[in-house]
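Intended use. Records like the one below are meant for learning the mapping from a protein sequence to its folded structure. Do not use them to infer anything beyond what is encoded.
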Amino acid sequence: MGRKVILTGATGYVGEGVLLECLAHPEVDQVLVVGRRSCGRSHAKLTELLVPDFLELDAVKDRFTGYDGCFFCAGISSVGMGEADYTRATYDTTLAFARAVHEGSSLATFIYVSGAGTNLHGRQMWARVKGRTEQELSTLGFRQQFNFRPGLMTLTPGMRNPKWWMRVLVPAFAVLMPWVTCSMKQVGLAMIHAVQRGYPKNVLEVKDIKALAKA
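Structure written out for the chain above:
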């Protein structure tokens, strides 16, 4: 039986890479991409739902019924943002989306892309906000909930969104720091495998992502 998944962030780096893996995977039958603008792709498995504001989901939450997984890959950089604005864009938005998904698909696996260095009690503002987000997501009652903390992620062929400097620098840093590096393919496969068979930890660092991708 094929899986049905919801995916956000398809116009960004992580979301695009995960989307490509979902579309290529034989055990994923349907992908509902939810975003503020179109991802610009068409595929037999792909349906798009454009939502201007993830904090205003009442009109569309009935579309989130009956899914096996949700891959929340949307996110923004904290550079130049104050804590209140970053909290609204990260914590508030993610939790609002997760609650809407839970109403229709409480038996789903919800995966949040956090980041290496996330720490509820950390010194950096972004790390604390993402730590709070991880903590709150775990209380919502999904069948499974995982927080992915990838470090450097090498590109998947066919990705259109990465900037030119990412295409140049990421492979170079990946060679220099392999212990904090995984591929976008590994991230996507790990998410699909998490829905299929779970994982013994709900916070997955780079080494966990690599292990689950092989499973």
